[in-house]
Amino acid sequence: MSTFQAPKGTYDLLPPNSATYLAVREAISAPLRNSGYGYIETPGFENVELFARGVGESTDIVTKEMYAFETKGGDRLALRPEGTASVLRAALEANLHKGGNLPVKLWYSGSYYRYERPQKGRYRHFSQVGAEAIGAEDPALDAELIILADQAYRSLGLRDFRILLNSLGDKECRPVYRAALQEFLRGLDLDDDTRRRVDINPLRVLDDKRESVRKQLTGAPALGDYLCEACKAYHEQVRELLTAAGVAFEDDANLVRGLDYYTRTTFEFVHDGLGSQSAVGGGGRYDGLSEMIGGPALPSVGWALGVDRTVLALEAEGVTLDIPAATAVYAVPLGEEARRVLFGQVTALRKAGIATDFAFGGKGLKNAMKSANRSGARLALVAGERDLAEGVVQLKNLESGEQTAVPLDAVVDEVRRTLG
Ligand code: HAM
Description:
Elements: H1 18-33, E1 38-39, E2 45-47, H2 48-55, H3 60-63, E3 68-70, E4 76-79, H4 84-93, E5 104-113, E6 125-134, H5 139-155, E7 161-167, H6 174-186, H7 192-200, H8 202-205, H9 211-214, H10 229-244, E8 250-251, E9 263-271, E10 279-285, H11 289-292, E11 300-306, H12 307-317, E12 329-333, H13 336-351, E13 356-358, H14 365-374, E14 379-383, H15 385-389, E15 392-397, E16 403-407, H16 411-419
Parallel strand pairs: 1-5, 7-8, 12-13, 12-14
Antiparallel strand pairs: 2-4, 3-4, 5-6, 6-11, 7-9, 9-10, 10-11, 14-15, 15-16
Helix pairs in contact: 1-5, 1-12, 5-10
């Protein structure tokens, strides 16, 4: 133990469990890479205004949860609380949207920071894999993204997740609904904080989990009744495409996301084994975000899946991923000369693409064999003075215990043959 500990709300990823995180990132990104999404990486921090304008001045993320700071040079920056605003900023800055090749399809993977009250599944540093399709208004694009996330979760072996789907309307119909909702909410018995929320972001009140608020919400106007014809038709197409693809979803008229940029299609992936932090991923359309951050009109859609919560979902379902052992061969030298010779063999095996490790630090045979077994290796290469005098090493199958002498110049071929 050192004097220091990981900061509150954070944790370290350590082997062997860290392999599951890598496998989850890989599984989520594989369907994207297979569907025309290119990899993008943006800085871990941005101008604080990008998030204030993009995510929304009234959201918890911006008002309470941002790690914002001023640099020595006087710049106001924030650690990124999410990826969409940054990815859109980067795409606009690099003019990826020009040249007629829309949508620009991008995927990303990285760390995000929110100053939240930590609990299981809710951290101050967490990890997302996300996708954004920028510059096209096409229900097939919304459907594509939902289908790819569904595919990713299924490829991991997850079954107990549900897809909640809603439409939040557009700049035509949402303001009308917002006004109707405000009128309804202003007639209720609410505390000052919630009244302020009614003024700034009334849709969020629908998401209030307190019973005292919930019971007053019966009879609140429903957004679905206010959708304009264009939004209704668009949403119906998304639903039809998902159904045709065999992706099950639940219509959830109360699905309100915690970020302000959403329009039309919104969705959340929830997992029933996770308790209160049940959203493993979420996303939707954000047709107005580009203009909010000073760009041209670029209707877009995207999602981000939480890696931490996806790993918790795997645990909740008792799914263990089939992760191949990192080491296939473990070399155990007995004596100085053997160290030199076997180290050479280790380098040759690695060059041949075979994952190999070595008993460093002059351990005795017993300890070295223990390390070999712990590494998960299938084969051990063992050599002592007598073997070297005969120009061989012993190739030991750690599963069967079988051992054969292999000439030094045939080790790579023999190992390859044995591993298959
Ligand atoms: P979000 O719903 O805020 O959306 O986050 C997406 C996912 O990130 C959540 O479902 C959850 O799994 C994970 N997550 C969020 N906060 C935490 C936390 N404190 N601890 C652990 N996991 C967390 C967005 O971030 C949008 N940018 C998604 C998007 C992309 N919309 C359009 N494009």
